[in-house]
Write a structure and sequence with these properties.
The protein has 11 helices and no strands. It is globular, with a radius of gyration of 18 Å. The chain starts with a helix and ends with a helix.
């Protein structure tokens, strides 16, 4: 298969995967509403950077090890579930703002994370997800031809990393528009709690599927 047809197919499959709701979507959504644009963008870049981790694992064969070693898959799943549950519990504790200015500056009961911490949160959320690793393993095993040069595969990986970060950065920009974020912060503690429930549900799903695989 030549470069461009294969690349376009990968781009289409990746777009459908990254646009579907999941842990990455929930984390960016929460950071955008609760903490603001800078933190949401940092988390988005962290998620995109973690894609390179999955791509590397697929290229060097670690993804196959994860797929064929049940206990390792379960350990990664439990670690990811624990982290998502932790973030979810924080979200469930969100309270209604007690002062109007909190609709602009955010909730006073939760410290705003630094850009570095937001980046790490995004990186961990995506990097610990074994389902993401298996997705990229399937991508490299089914769609990408075995005879595709390594240089092309690296280009594919870099593209998917950049495209993922760009998608969530765009989402962050939309959600942190002044009027949108102001409304969500004023009435969004219910929304934040909903994100908490979603994160807890995703954590539970990871646990259940890891032991049923």
């Amino acid at each position: 298969m030549s470069f461009w047809p294969e690349f376009m197919l990968i781009a289409l499959v990746h777009l459908m995967a990254v646009a579907s709701p999941g842990p990455d979507f929930a984390i960016v959504l929460r950071y955008a509403v609760r903490f603001g644009r800078q933190q949401a963008l940092a988390a988005s870049v962290g998620i995109g950077s973690a894609i390179l981790l999955h791509v590397t694992w697929s290229l060097v064969g670690i993804a196959v090890l994860i797929q064929t070693t049940p206990w390792l898959f379960q350990v990664l799943s439990l670690a990811a579930a624990a982290y998502l549950a932790y973030i979810g519990i924080l979200a469930l504790r969100s309270k209604a703002p007690t002062h109007p200015e909190q609709s602009i500056h955010g909730s006073a009961d939760e410290a705003v994370p630094t850009v570095g911490k937001a980046f790490i949160a995004g990186f961990i959320t995506n990097g610990l997800n074994p389902k993401a690793t298996l997705f990229f393993l399937s991508l490299f095993a089914v769609i990408i031809s075995p005879i595709t040069p390594l240089s092309y595969k690296i280009i594919y990986g870099i593209y998917m990393s950049v495209a993922t970060a760009a998608w969530f950065c765009m989402l962050s920009m939309v959600l942190t528009q002044t009027k949108v974020r102001g409304f969500l912060l004023l009435k969004g503690y219910w929304f934040d709690r909903l994100m908490g429930l979603l994160l807890l549900a995703l954590a539970m799903h990871l646990v259940v599927t890891s032991f049923s695989s």
